[in-house]
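Problem 12. The chain below contains 255 residues. Write out its predicted structure in token notation.
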Amino acid sequence: MNNVKYLKSSAYGGLDENRIAYKQSLGKSPGIIWCGGLKSDMDGSKASALHKWADEQDRAFLRFDYFGHGVSSGDFRHGTVSRWAADTVQVIDALTQGPQILVGSSMGGWTALLAALARASRIKALVLLAPAPDFTEKLMWANFNDDIRATIMEEGIYYEPSDYDEPYEISRELIVDGRKNLLLDAPINIKCPVRIIQGMKDTSVPYTHASKIVDALVSPDVELTLVKNGDHSLSGAEDIARMIETLIAITGLMK
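Solution.
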């Protein structure tokens, strides 16, 4: 469970030298794939707890670090939503077999949705925690003042203060690329079951954002759970228990 392995990135036709770091356990189907958030890594508390639970259930599990995250190679400031979604699709294709459930946290909710659209036949359910599709445009750009917008477009980078660690590097490329991947302005053609868990005290992704995702999803089987005192991380003991209970219920639908 704790052994890090590496997969050569297939980005740019496999012409670059970057590698995707991952940890994996084999087991029964459907497998579970963890899609982490912006600047998070695969050793976070939720991913680690979920991996432990999956091992106890003898269920296949995979967690990985996107380009520029964790122990994967690459410079974060050169990462984009397109690249991180491509990483997600690559690990699905290269490292897993059969039906999979994607668990996406924050930005991982966006990459999970994009991957589910790209691999509809493989992805049988989604569990999304404080999902943040379209965050570059609707949660960042929309709230930036003119000075910040000018800094991004003219200087190519803006360092946004973070509550969690060092500042976020918001690049022009991230913003421009994000606009190519927007999902909430049209129906999201995902038809599998989707479960969304959202904290109402989330200061990074307002809970109204989750409602917009529910409205956009084509699937008739969508449930939104609002956690009154939940923050963005949703990483407390009760939050992790809720996540696991949600997965138990959704895997039960597939028996």
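Discussion. The mean pLDDT is 94. Students who got a different answer should revisit the alignment rule from Section 12.3.
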